[in-house]
UniProtKB/TrEMBL annotation:
Pfam families: TonB_2. It comes from Alkalimarinus alittae. The gene is tolA. Keywords: Membrane, Transmembrane, Transmembrane helix. This is Cell envelope integrity protein TolA. NCBIfam families: tolA_full, tonB_Cterm.
Length: 343
């Protein structure tokens, strides 16, 4: 790198440093700036005192060195005196700095106190203003309420007068209307009486004619009802007889089927007496399933009886009619006799 280039770099660094110091100085508080200035002045004074102390000695002039050199002894007390003077100067500067700081604190305290007093005074003033404003608002509100109250009273009085006037007019109107209605009612009542008299006369005539017609109609209806009743009774009897015949035929058919089914499953014991008869009672369900079977009347031969009962209980399902009424009347519980005939 050339000398000019190096110089330019140093210059840029110096400028950057100066800009940084200026920015830093601007960010400091005024009290801090004052303290730094005092410190710089103090250091400058100390340096000046030190410089003036050393320069007070005799000026050294170049002389021709003699053949013999004489040594000069410096008194230590002189150095101690200068050092003491320097320390005293430092102490005075430090005392001054402390006084300045104390004065600054007192000033700031005084300012804070004044600020506090001003704030309290402002607060007090604001409170008084607020109080006066609230008092004024209260007075205005009271005036407004009184004005509204007066206006309301006046409005009520006007409404009352209008209502009384309207009531009087309505009463007069109602009285006039009542008179008109009364007159119309009298007129209508007279018309109604005349019409009622005519209606009564017509009603009496109509009633006589209607009564005669009703008597004739009742006579015809009674004859027709008796004729229809006789026909219905005849048809009912015929239907009942037909139903009974059909039911008897249906019952006989299923009795025969049940008897045949039991007989097919019956293994008569050898040696059974010819003509032995046992009566069984069967309890069936609407599905044809056997509820239970029992001997209702014994033949006198227990072996014969048990064989017939065994044949009845060996059948899981019996043929029964699909008509539930026929089943309930004839097959819910029924008895059946079984005899040993000669083959």
């Amino acid at each position: 790198m050339s000398k000019n280039g190096a110089k330019q770099v140093k210059t840029n660094i110096l400028k950057s440093g100066i800009r940084f110091l200026m920015q830093f100085w601007q960010t400091l508080d005024r009290s801090y700036r004052r303290s730094i200035v005092y410190a710089l002045v103090l250091h400058a004074a100390v340096l000046a005192l030190l410089g003036s102390g050393w320069s007070s000695q005799a000026e050294v002039r170049p002389v021709v060195a003699p053949r013999h050199i004489n040594a000069v002894v410096v008194d230590a007390s002189v150095l101690d005196a200068k050092k003491k003077e320097t320390d005293q100067a430092k102490k005075r500067i430090e005392n001054q700095r402390q006084k300045d700081r104390q004065a600054q604190k007192e000033l700031e305290k005084k300012k804070a106190l004044e600020k506090k007093k001003k704030a309290e005074q402002k607060k007090k003033t604001d409170a008084e203003k607020k109080k006066l404003l609230e008092k004024k608002k209260a007075v205005d509100k009271k005036k407004k309420e009184e004005a509204q109250k007066k206006a309301l009273i006046k409005k009520k009085e006007e409404q009352k007068k209008r209502a009384e006037k309207k009531q009087r007019e309505e009463k007069q109107k109602q009285e006039a209307e009542a008179k008109r209605i009364k007159a119309e009612k009298l007129k209508e009542e007279e018309k109604r009486k005349q019409a009622l008299l005519r209606e009564q006369q017509e009603a009496q005539l109509q009633e006589m004619m209607l009564k005669a017609e009703q008597e004739r109609q009742q006579e015809i209806e009674e004859r027709l009802r008796q004729q229809q009743q006789r026909e219905a009774d005849r048809l009912q009897q015929a239907q009942l007889k037909a139903d009974q015949i059909a039911e008897m035929n249906e019952v006989d058919r299923f009795i025969a089927l049940i008897r045949a089914k039991i007989t097919r499953n019956w293994h008569k014991p050898p040696g059974a007496k010819i003509g032995s008869t046992v009566v069984l009672q069967l309890h069936l369900f609407p599905t044809g399933e056997l509820g239970r079977a029992e001997i209702l009347k014994s033949s006198g031969d227990s072996t014969f009886d048990r064989s017939a009962l065994s044949a009845a209980t060996s059948i899981s399902k019996y043929p029964v009619p699909a008509d539930n009424r026929v089943f309930e009347r004839n097959f819910r519980r029924f008895s059946m006799s079984f005899s040993h005939q000669e083959d």
